[in-house]
Automatic annotation (TrEMBL):
Residues of the signal peptide: none
UniProt family annotation: Belongs to the glutamine synthetase family.
GO molecular function, one term: glutamine synthetase activity
Name of the protein in its database record: Glutamine synthetase
Length: 758
């Protein structure tokens, strides 16, 4: 029968033993502490310091900080040292590891092995040697013609360069048969120096925000003439909470839609899914725990500081989260985390799904980007401290962020737009498509009191900030429990951009996408806003050498008033908020093609080009690449769905109808009334089959017309959004009816009940 492969996969899932690995142990059998092997596969600054003479190491540090170029002698010394280090750990190849605009990473491996020719009196003698030069470390030349360029490069203009990003450490990843590969984190640029990747623009944005923020901080905290500024560098920090699904790989292999698109294009919810609220923070299934533990072991060795793991809301949905790091390194580590999870899941005969909405009807997955700024003295600039109402540095930075979202919320919406994230945003488990900011009751009162020129309400009384278990208004009435600290703000999971104590959480980022582009846009918006706040402060202080507290308060008050529209403390899922947001003038951008147009809006594009984050051609290229990817994603989905319905679902239903017809014929030969149940089932099935055939024809017609639109990514994306996507929705609705009406033994596609529960 058609479901034999499903049954075999389910039996294999049940009978398959859990894969086991051994964590490192000492000679006496005791476990090695995680801190002792953390980062052992990373060629860290400490390793470089050991390998280089002190003057050369000092020179390298200056290069890392952008103060001078890296000379050939230092590059050769580092290359030699990292080759020996890597080969001692089994490395046979090296690769420049980069982030093209494909939503993934890319790598091309080259062997350390080379041949050296020696000419003697007896002729040429060839010797095999291992070598790795400074020039090989610094750059490589992958073919750029096959990567997205948005028209900046033609097919015959193939040359592109990967360049070592010295701010991100090299590392090795273990391969098959005891070998490994040296990975060199890199940027990817065209022959003309245009950014073809995600990292180049991210690094530009971090430089922009460092410059803008340092200028503001040194203005409000001046130093004597001739002295060094108190803040010489500001960097953004990032912690990415990664959500994902894990399902059985053999069942995954029976779902063409999952294999080709990352999501199920047909399927009904099982009787029990997430409605009992019993999966969230529940016990992690043993097969999943084995996968998590193995992935964590590899990530710890790679220096990725994974901190948290737990069940998420939907069945078979999980999350991991790291300790905060500098943003560009955190992006590298998030992409590594996704890569390692995929590899380890494969070893455990599972499949990890990063798609934002792989299963209709249950929660989708996001990548919550927890973002802040810190000084080179280790000060978190978004720490409100005990009395935020008098912490003017914090308030100036805070209103800068609010101003950034107020001005460039549409651009932030564009940064998280994709065909996959469309299925999640605005649903019952994800932030809406309207970008707003949640601050919490305490900070809202602080800003309101400053704007209104009145004392703050009694939020800072110590007793209010502690939950005690006896004798207070917050008495939980369990005397044996200790007192705990209460945060200044509650959490609002309906907000796309929420303040969570000492950072902002950009919750709208999709689980599948690289965090690089959303963080780039956020950095750029805040960098521009910091410049606006600094300019307003200079204007307020006039000829004075530095601003007074009254000047700071005046500027803070100005930006509090101008950013009130973007602050929202309520339920972002409610219909009332959509109406309210429209009154406030906040954009409600519902589709991705519409969102991508924000990149070319002069309000946003002028800011991005002025700061040097993008050139005009790079921005135009990015816009076309995103539109083209959206159109292609929907085209692949539509073609996959059409093929799946025509080649598997309809034939299965035809076979079931045939069996019903035969049964009716046999039963009528005995007693016509005995065939009534089968006849009723056939009559219920037949009109739905006809309906599905019509829906498939409509879908194929939409796909055909999309091809006729022409070679215009923008027009294709808009057509796919307006016509192909609705045709897919219609076909799915009918197919899902047939799944219920068709006898299980004829149905070839694994059901949700099989995919979502081990």
């Amino acid at each position: 029968m058609a479901n034999q492969a499903r049954v075999a996969s389910l039996q294999d899932n049940i009978n398959r033993p859990t894969r086991t690995i051994s964590y490192p142990k000492r000679a006496d059998g005791k476990p090695v502490y995680t801190s002792e092997f953390f980062g052992e596969n990373v060629f860290s600054l400490h390793q470089i310091a050991k390998a280089l003479p002190k003057p050369a190491y000092a020179s390298f540090l200056k290069q890392m900080r952008g103060r001078q170029a890296l000379d050939k002698a230092t590059a050769d010394a580092i290359a030699h040292a990292v080759r020996i280090w890597a080969m001692d750990r089994g490395a046979t190849h090296f690769t420049h590891w980069f982030q093209p605009q494909t939503g993934s990473t890319a790598e091309k491996h080259d062997a350390f092995l080379t041949l050296k020719s020696n000419f003697t009196s007896n002729g040429e003698e060839v010797t095999a040697i291992d070598a790795f030069s400074g020039s090989q470390l610094l750059q490589a030349e992958p073919d750029a013609s096959s990567f997205p360029s948005g028209g900046m490069r033609t097919t015959f203009e193939a040359r592109g360069y990967t360049v070592w990003d010295t701010t991100s450490p090299m590392f090795i990843q273990e391969g098959p048969h005891g070998t490994s590969v040296l990975y060199i984190p890199s940027v990817f640029i065209s022959y003309n120096g245009d950014a073809l990747d995600e990292k180049t623009v991210l690094l530009r944005s971090t430089s922009a925000i460092a410059k803008s923020c340092s200028e503001l901080l040194n203005l409000i905290d001046p130093v004597p003439v001739g002295a060094q500024p108190k803040v010489s560098h500001v960097y953004t920090t990032l912690g990415t909470e990664q959500e994902y699904f894990l399902i059985d790989r053999s069942l995954y292999s029976l779902r063409p839609d999952l294999k080709h698109t990352g999501r199920t294009l047909i399927g009904n919810l099982p009787p029990k899914h997430q409605q009992m609220d019993d999966h969230y923070f529940g016990r992690v299934p043993s097969k999943v725990m084995a996968t998590m533990s193995e992935a964590e072991l590899e990530l710890f060795r790679l220096g990725v500081p994974i901190k948290t793991r737990h069940n998420e809301v939907a069945p078979q949905q999980f999350e991991c989260a790291p300790i905060f790091e500098e943003a560009s390194l955190a992006v590298d580590h998030n992409l590594l985390t996704m890569d390692v999870l995929s590899k380890v899941a494969h070893k455990n005969k599972l499949k990890v799904l990063f798609h934002e909405k792989p299963f209709k009807g249950v929660n989708g997955s996001g990548k919550h980007c927890n973002w802040s700024m810190s000084t080179d003295r280790g000060e978190n600039l978004l720490d409100p401290t005990v009395k935020p109402e008098t912490n003017y540095r914090f308030l100036l930075v805070l209103v800068s962020v609010l101003h950034a979202v107020q001005q460039h919320g549409g651009l932030m919406r564009a940064s998280i737009a994709s065909s996959s994230n469309e299925h999640r945003l605005g649903a019952c488990e994800a932030p809406p498509m309207i970008v707003s900011v949640f601050l919490g009751e305490h900070l809202t009162e602080v800003l309101n009191s400053i704007e209104e020129g009145r004392p703050i309400k009694n939020f800072s009384v110590p007793e209010i900030q502690t939950i005690k278990f006896g004798g207070t208004a917050l008495d939980v009435k369990v005397a044996s429990l200790p007192s705990i600290s209460r945060d200044l703000t509650d959490r609002n999971r309906t907000s796309p951009f929420a303040f969570t104590g000492n950072k902002f959480e950009f919750r709208a980022v999709g689980s599948k996408q690289s965090p690089a582009f959303p963080v780039t846009i956020l950095n750029a918006a805040v960098a521009s806003s910091l410049q606006d706040v600094t300019a307003a402060l200079r204007e307020q202080m006039g000829d004075k050498p530095y601003p007074s507290d009254a000047d700071k308060v005046a500027v803070i008050k100005k930006f509090i008033a101008s950013t009130k529209a973007v602050r929202f403390e309520g339920d972002g899922y409610s219909d009332a908020w959509i109406v309210e947001a429209e009154k406030r003038g906040l954009p409600n951008i519902k589709t991705s093609p519409e969102a991508f147009e924000q990149l070319l809006n002069p309000l946003h594009s002028d800011m991005l080009t002025k700061l040097g984050i993008f050139t005009a051609s790079e921005l135009q290229s990015r816009h076309l690449i995103l539109q083209e990817r959206y159109a292609k994603d929907l085209l692949v989905e539509a073609t996959t769905l059409s093929t799946l319905l025509a080649s598997q679902v309809l034939p299965a239903v035809f076979e079931y109808r045939s069996s019903l017809a035969q049964a009716i014929s046999l039963l009528k030969g005995i007693d016509a009334e005995d065939a009534t149940p089968e006849l009723s089932a056939l009559r219920a099935l037949t009109p739905v089959v006809k309906e599905l055939q019509a829906a498939v024809d409509n879908l194929n017609s939409a796909v055909h017309k999309m091809h006729e639109v022409g070679d215009d990514p923008v027009a294709e994306a808009k057509y796919a959004c307006a016509h192909v996507q609705p045709a897919m929705t219609e076909a799915r609705a009918v197919a899902d009816k047939l799944e219920v009406l068709t006898a299980d033994k004829y149905y070839p596609i694994p059901h949700y009940s099989e995919l979502l529960w081990f």
